[in-house]
Amino acid sequence: MADDSKLADPAETFERMTYLSGKAQQMMLEFIARQESAGGTSGGMNLTADPFGMMDMWTGITQAALSDPVKLAQMQMDYVQEAVQLWQGMLGGEATPTAATGKQDRRFSGDAWENAPAFSFIKQAYLLTSRYIMDTVEELDGIEDKDREKIQFYTKQFVDAMSPSNYLLTNPEVLQKTIETGGENLLKGTEHLLHDLEQGRMRMTDESAFEVGGNVAVTPGKVVFQNRLFQLIQYAPTTSQVYEIPLLIFPPWINKFYILDLTPEKSFIRWAVEQGLTVYVVSWKNADETTADVTQDSYVEEGFLTALDQVLADTKAEAAHLIGYCVAGTTLSAVLALLAARGEATKVRTATFFTAQVDFEDAGELSVFIREGELALADEQSRERGYLDGRAMAATFNMLRSNDLIWNYVVNNYLLGKDYFPFDLLFWNSDATNVPAKWHQNYLKDLYRDNKLATPGGISILGTPINLSKVETPAYVQAGKEDHIAPMRSVWKLTKHFSGPVRFTLAGSGHIAGVVNPPALGKYQHWTLDGELPDTVDEFERLAKENKGSWWPDWIAWLTPQSGKKVEARKPGKRKLKVIEDAPGSYVKQRLI
Q1: Does 178 reside within a domain?
Q2: Is residue 572 part of a domain?
Q3: Are both 496 and 539 inside the same structural domain?
């Protein structure tokens, strides 16, 4: 890094920055040469010119806007009036800008955005214009709700991308850093960018600071069964006695299971073991060419039913508690209906659902990706290999919170050239998983798009029509108040499809932090309601009791009375199932580049 004396000399500073610019260009050329010699990064995809139907969408926006010229003219006049006020404020007039200050917006939290007149104006102009654009889209008439959601989503992506905080010349913090370091930040940022381009994903944290099985996913246990889809892990007991009914956890196969065993302090798995439960967890295999034939039936038969039978045979218990997280919770609901149809419902004592959906009528922003263009693109990306690259799915989820999960890292990593901060949750979030192409397409079309699981007989599993209303298994349903992946209103609908007793808990925060909220941390709150559930989630919110801290104690208080008597603690590998390897196993350690 250049010292202050050098920075004080404009000629030397210019020479230094010219040198660094040349180095950055050389790095870029070397990167391009490597990509060309490797055959490029497109993977041979022949994508259509407009896979998302953007041209039709913008045509529809124009037609809708022109359908009410009076309203459009009024909005334009309001915008011009506020823009004039903004100019008057910039020129020292008495009028004050009417755009939001952005103080709560982390993109503009630096003092320069407020104190430097030029950058304050840039910020205000952007906020005013972006608000006008989003308001115009929201006020369009003659647009169907589904189309409006798509228009709003992609418009917001554009608005977020155009923020002045994302560019060197309009971000005062980046400019200051560039002056202070003589451009070293941009050179370092270029290194980060080229590395990420080669890896095919954006780094968010110092990934070298973590090791699966080293300092994350470290709860002691053994792999005691495996097949082509999963490894079954049993965790070592920490109590002399355990409840008779074991617990079997099904995490989503679109993520790694160790979000539930992130660190000892945050581990739901470790905590459940400490409550006197015999805990088994399914660790799904990363999809590859060998799983190209895998469908929903495969996950049910080779995954859920096989794991359940292995656990019951190993423990000699008459039933098991099951947990399904996210897409695994969706599949768990179908499994319960299948068992009910087969007369085998007693194999499951209780079922717990972490942020899971079965009725996708109000599925939130992810519904944007079930239009024909998006489905065709996903199919084209995965058809030849037989699986969808997990990095593509991770990018989709990141788009739902683009300012926090994309542009924040563009600024920090590429413009400011900051060192990566070690953060276990972001390490897990970056540990993407492939999913089978056939399963992925059927899941999006049959469930997200056509909502067939919510209709009795709408889908069949292993030849049996599925009817969720036949499920009488006691259920615990957890939703996240700020969940943007499985919105609470969508998760709530699950309570109306089962016929058995249901307890619903609304946790503070979202899809991850709402679930991974150990009592020891004392974060967030949760809402519960004893007795019969009301008809709507709005009534639940009005009537429910707010409780401080984690919802885990509420769950264990619900679970243990249904867990049978206490028996001698079961050690892994000492009964029917034998030890294959130590937890967390080899499947979870397979990491995409």
Answers
A1: yes
A2: yes
A3: yes
pLDDT for res 278: 98
Instruction: Specify whether 326 is catalytic.
Output: yes
Q: How many angstroms separate the CA atoms of 8 and 3, rounded? A: 9
- Torsion angle of the four alpha carbons 528, 264, 511, 157, in this order, in degrees rounded to the nearest 10: 150
**Is 264 in the same domain as 166?**
no
Amino acid, res. 142: G
Structural domain of residue 381, as residue ranges? 221-389+432-589
* pLDDT given at position 48: 43
Q: Which of 187, 212, 254, 326 is catalytic?
A: 326
What pLDDT was estimated at residue 15? 56
Residue 50 is assigned to a structural domain of this protein: no
- Is there a single domain that holds both residue 249 and residue 178? no
User: Which pairs with CB-CB distance under 8 Å and at least 24 residues apart come from 361-365?
Assistant: 361/451, 361/454, 361/490, 361/493, 362/487, 362/489, 362/490, 362/493, 363/448, 363/486, 363/487, 363/490, 364/484, 364/485, 364/486, 364/487, 364/490, 365/149, 365/153, 365/400, 365/484
Number of folded domains in the chain?
2
Q: Is residue 298 a contact partner of residue 229, using CB atoms and an 8 Å limit?
A: yes
Residue 309 has a CB neighbour count (10 Å cut-off) of 12
Sign of the C-alpha dihedral computed for residues 336, 342, 346 and 347 taken in this order: negative
Same domain, 283 and 187: no
Query: What is the pTM assigned to this prediction?
Result: 0.82
User: Phi and psi of 583, rounded to 5°?
Assistant: -65, 150
Based on the domain organization, do 327 and 378 belong to the same domain? yes
Return the CATH number at 457.
3.40.50.1820
Contacts made by residues 561-566, CB under 8 angstroms, sequence distance 24+: 562/245, 562/321, 562/349, 562/350, 562/474, 563/243, 563/244, 563/245, 563/277, 563/321, 563/349, 564/243, 564/244, 564/245, 564/317, 565/243, 565/244, 566/241, 566/242, 566/243, 566/244, 566/276
CA 381 from chain centre, in angstroms, equals: 20
φ/ψ (deg, to 5) at 581? -165, 170
Give a yes or no: residue 424 inside a domain: no
Cβ–Cβ < 8 Å for 206, 421:
yes
* Claim to verify: residue 339 and residue 438 sit in the same structural domain: yes
Which amino acid would we find at residue 250?
F
At 46 the pLDDT is 40
pLDDT along the chain (593 residues), means of 10: 44 54 54 53 41 50 52 58 63 50 75 86 86 81 74 84 89 91 89 84 89 97 98 98 98 96 96 98 96 96 98 98 98 98 98 97 78 71 83 77 83 91 92 93 92 97 98 98 94 97 96 94 92 96 96 98 98 96 97 80
